[in-house]
Amino acid sequence: MFNALVRSRRLPFMRRIHTGDTVSIKNLRYCGLINGRQTPLSLSTDLITDFGQASTDDDLRYSINYAVLSRDLRSFEKKYSRSSFRSLLQLGEGIFNEVLFSTNCRRATLTFNMDHQDCDVIVEMSREKSSGLNITLKLDNLGVNTIIGVFKEERLAEQPVVLNLVMEMAGDFSVDKIVSSTKNYVSKSQFKTVEALVLNVAKLAFQTTENAHRCKVSVLKPKAIGETDGVGVSVTRSRAEMKSQPLIDFPSSEYVPNLSKTTTVRDGKHTVYLAIGSNQGSQLTNINIALDELAKRNIKVKATSSLFRSAPMYYLNQPDFVNGCIKVETELHPQDLLNQIKEIEYQVLGRVKHFDNGPRPIDLDIILYDEAIYNSPNLTIPHMSMLERPFVLAPLCQLVPPDMLHPVTAEPIHNHWHQLRKTTKADELQPVIPLSGARMLPYGSRTLLMSILNVTPDSFSDGAAANLQIEHALSRVEQMVAAGVDIVDLGGCSTRPGSEQVSEAEELDRVLPVLEQIRKQFPELVLSVDTYRAEVARASVRLGADIINDVSGGLLDDKMYESVAQSGVGYVLGHMRGNIATMNTLSNYDEVAPGRIKQFSDYTAVMGGVCRELGVAFEKLQEAGVRRWQVIVDPGLGFAKKAEQSLELIRDLQKLRQYRQLSLESGEYVSFDDLAVLMGPSRKQFIGRITGKPPKDRAFGTAAAVSACIANGADIVRVHDFEPMKDVALVADSIYRTL
């Protein structure tokens, strides 16, 4: 009735071209004979036409009847039910020619969804009536298990990846060939990055299908990160772009090719980072022998980390390890360097390997070699397990700046340690200070109490003639031991600002007899000697001193660093300026230019100046051969500091503990991460300035300062009043360190 009404009124039709009008059929079930095999398909088509007049007249004669179209497709299916098409492409061409373009459409698309045991297959064809086919092949959800990633667990066990390929074709193709070759290649691959994987799958696609001219490859790792459906990357390349790039081959399952960059090891000097560890015999002795052997082989030790005691990680039924890292300079190529360190392990220190990860007197591993990526059947650089080992990353991050990137992951190494640290228990790594007799002093958990034993008549707070008597000194030490002090600090020369300095001979006469008797009576007691003189330090170590406490940080004797390096005992690097007579006139830190030093955080003038000067001294220490694991840092409260400046150093102590600097001249990096920090507020002048009390009446003020030092991270506090300060340390630890 409506059509009759339209015709009776003879509405004029204004001819317009509507190129976006589409008639569609979605997912028509179709079965075609392809290569002699019955192939179930799902067929969809869009016919681009112009049904402007049909919509105006509401007359189907001016459009394409999808019912007729469906019938024609079924007729085509029946017609060729016993005729085999060479390929899906030939089938599509037949449908275009005999069915789709028998209508009045100008352009059509034809999509086949095909069942495949390994993935979803979609073939899209589009064609103008007077031109050739455009073909797009889509392979979705192709699942493969493969080795992918940089972490050890990723290198040892396959994990699933899901691939999607989109290939633009100019001619025929074989779905089975593309799928099988892709699965075979990916399953045998051992890529470290998904970026390398997708690029090489694209290369393979062009090799497999000569008619492909553009390819997009996406890879998803569904189990890489929890609480997500997966993470991944994609890449799109043309054949022309990939023409000069060879496909990475995997000749064996043990060999991992260099994928991130082309690394050519050139002749010359190389910076290498080694991990070092021991859990058999005298661990410190073994480590020192190994370092000496490296030097004999022209492998120069440039810097060392702290040492950490840690439980075994893989095979658990063995003694704890002492681990660290060292930075060396060598002209040896990686394989030659490996040969040298294996010689040190097995021939010099007698390592016998009964099984992997078992006990050993020494273990040396190449962690990093310049920025190189190096792979051979017996050596992988960067070390494959470095990112899962706290006992490697913690000491390594003491030696490399925060912006140094891992050569494979392209992420700062410090970021890797930051992530691993979240899952590392507080007691899993215990830093230690070497003592005489190959003993070790652990620190970093409870606060260590260093008790002052002055054998001087003129110290600022406890000077007395009785201090020079050996019996008096031994009685005091007995009291200290009974009170539970951790370190006794023996001093024979007052270092109070402006004090008169006794001769070296006088200091030796005061210190050595007392030291000798203390060591005989208390063989396990940790003994420190407070001196800035190298000869006093040497003589004291010969009699059993464990630590040299140098308030000058080497300023007052240029032979001190050499003496400490030779002894191998602990060394308190104190901060001071000038000398005993002039230090109080040198407390202006505002006028000091930073020099060619890059600091990795912002600091006040006082904290920045103290840290920078300690950092420069630390660099000189290492040049002289002192190991980082020997060093204890002391910011020197009251030494070239006014009262307000000493208070600031206590208040901002965490900034010192986290201090990092890079010399723009030498290129050497210095950090105070995990170094033992000693604070000596006891009876100091700044406490008297606040309380108005003389030195001997400053116990309560000292207690407050000691508690503040502990709260802000001090590892060792040096005190006169050892009995009450022991209680202060116990309570402060319970509050601030939950011990």
CATH architecture of the largest domain: Alpha-Beta Barrel
Low-confidence parts lasting 5 or more residues at pLDDT below 50?
Answer: 1-18, 252-262
- What would the principal axes of the Cα set say about the shape? elongated
Say what oligomer this is: single chain
Strand content: 25-35%
Give the class-level CATH name of the largest domain: Alpha Beta
How many domains comprise the coordinates?
4
Biggest sheet features: 9 strands, mixed
By secondary-structure content and strand pairing, the structural class works out as alpha/beta
Rg computed from alpha carbons, rounded to a whole number of angstroms: 39 Å
CATH homolog superfamily of the largest domain: Dihydropteroate synthase-like
Mean pLDDT across every amino acid position: 89
